[in-house]
Amino acid sequence: MDKSWMTKSRGSREYMEGAEAFVKYAVTNSKNKNSIVCPCKKCGLKRSLRPEEVYDHLTGGRGMLSNYTEWIWHGEKIRAPVPNRVPNVVESLNPAPAADNIESIPDESRTMHAMLQDVFGMHDIRADDGECQVEVQAEDVPEAVEEEIDESAKKFYNLLKDADKPLHDKTKYSKLSAVVHLYNLKCVGGLSNAIFTSFLEFINELALTDEPALPNSTYEVKKYLRDLGLGYEKIPACRNNCMLFWKENEKLDTCTVCGKSKWKDEITEEDGSSRTSKRRPMKVLRWFPLASRLQRLYMSQHTASHMRWHTNERTKDGVLRHPADGEAWRAFDALHPDFASDPRNVRLGLASDGFNPFGHMSTSHSTWPVMLVPYNLPPWMCMKQPYFILSMIIPGPTSPGMNIDVYLQPLISELQELWNVGVRTFDISMKKSFVMRTALMWTINDFPAYADLSGWSTKGALACPCCMHSTKSTWLTYGRKFCYMGHRRWLPTDHNWRQNARSFDGKKELGVAPVVPDGDEILRQLQRLVCVNEDTEGGKRKRTVEQGHKANKEVVWKKKSIFFTLPYWKDNLLRHNLDVMHIEKNVMDNIIGTLLDMKEKTKDNHEARLDLRKMGLRKTLHPFTNERGKTYLPAACHTMSNEEKLNFLKVIKNVRVPDGYASNVSRCVNLKARTIVGLKSHDNHILMQQLLPIALRKSLPNKVVKPLVELSAFFRGICSKTLTEEDLARHEAEIPIILCKLEQTFPPGFFTIMVHVVIHLVRECRLGGPVHYRWMYPIER
Q1: Using CB atoms within 10 A as the burial measure, which of 12, 97, 118, 157 is most buried?
Q2: CA separation for the pair 91, 164 (Å, rounded)
Q3: Which of 757, 453, 753, 471 lies closest to 575 in space, CA to CA?
């Protein structure tokens, strides 16, 4: 068939007629005339739909997969799959003859073929009389890797034979597909190694064959699947997170910092000496080397061509749709033109957070996976789970804290090598080898992890990592915490609110908005930083930080981050992202807790009123005591009556949303107690951006409702999938006014650090692009 229609505009007549002819062709060659595999960009050959639905997907805005040029899933004959980047040394391997038509290959084997091709990069080789004939130019394969390719080809053909040979005559599953399916069930179901071994042994007994049809144990399964590249390296670590027993320290038995043994299960002999029973390390870091996983992105036909999308196919009209549209990306290209000259060089984001791997909250345990996100991919692939790269798993049971840099050493070392030297990679979409280099653009993390990765303490008087030493905070004597107000600094210098001390914090505002320090300024601050590790009674190490230039000032830098060892890190305009997901959640918690006067969650309590009296603000709200000695708190403008609370909660409880749009928020509403409890992060997202403006309409005065509705619109605006400079300029002018209105309404305790950092979100959107590429939702899912 003529396939030129695939490159035409989806609204053109040629495209519509070509899509219709394709659907008819697929139905003619399909065994099941009622459904065919959908090749649109969203379905990606993973769903079978009715022919008319497939036609709607192809013409209704999704379009055909650009790299699906051989219609092997719709009846087109293909050549046998054989390696692409393999030299003639593999001709003697003599694989099993391939079929002439893809329909003659069982579905399971066809799936295994595709998986093996993506793992090993083996494509576009023909089989002739049962022998491999390689169609790769000699200059495409570097001599230095011929031996490595030969070994890879052997593994490929060994697994290919297992993928083609059914377990017996009455099954569609081969040995490879059966092992992959069973091991996937083990992982998803959480089966122990012992149970899975017993399960395999029982299956082999049922097979009644002379030789075991499947591996007999979990160990044999892992060894069998190791050739798929699913392995990792184990690196022992100090129990106190002081160091890794890695490289030159690999053979040491004790930590060079704290002196603790590397091993556990030590047994004391009668003579007082000690020995170790099984020599098991106390802590083990699982490290998944990065280079081979990045190479695989170019080995797979599904991703190789998309890795150049940010340069070749991105619409460059000034609208922010992708991180490549942001100022940080453009500034990086300007500073490093040699890196930017090849669009195949990979840009990464790093995300890390702790979680409890045991599936229940009764156990206090924190394991930290470190994920990498390739930003070369287009919007419909970027930030999706199949394209995340697991880089390492930092062991628990406690958070590594500021010592996370110890565990990041292998990754940072590899990133330095991938920047300075690169790695030889074969691009299946261009049929050429190139030297792939890699750069880390920024990190994605919640606010506590922000401190661990950046080294700036996100607690105390100077908690804002953007304002840094210019952070304006006030200690609340009775509330026993800091509040962060002073948002009038971002208003125009002639704004009348700057002179209004009475409605805000009791002072006139003459300052200007702080400037975020660049990398050079941060390095100058870190030059005077001295970190000392001291022993504590529990045997752990305590980090003491001293800063020589001002010994009496609070020291907020806790360390010099390991990321500054990357040559380009100090020049990045956006190094660490403020996570909008957690910010939105915390802001919503403050609003709901205060409006509903929920115990232990409200920011307007007796201590807050005492702080107002101490600060000399809003005298009508100061607590007073009657003749009987009972203390009363006068009602504030944001105080709801019981009837208003019920009306507010009924709106939320009675709301019905489309399936998959949000969870059942009504289950969190307790009308009897007049509270909302148990909201998840996404529930707060929906409440803030959609439900709050509706529920508040007739519950509170306009001066309270209006800034909250404007705050809702602000979050909805910055979370849009596309942003323009006009949008950003409008949001940047609106947010200080919104926060100043809230300062006039709510008590100082309302303004936690998470409320304050909202002022910096527009700047990060301008630098990094749309929010959904830089928040924790996809990572935490």
Answers
A1: 157
A2: 19
A3: 453
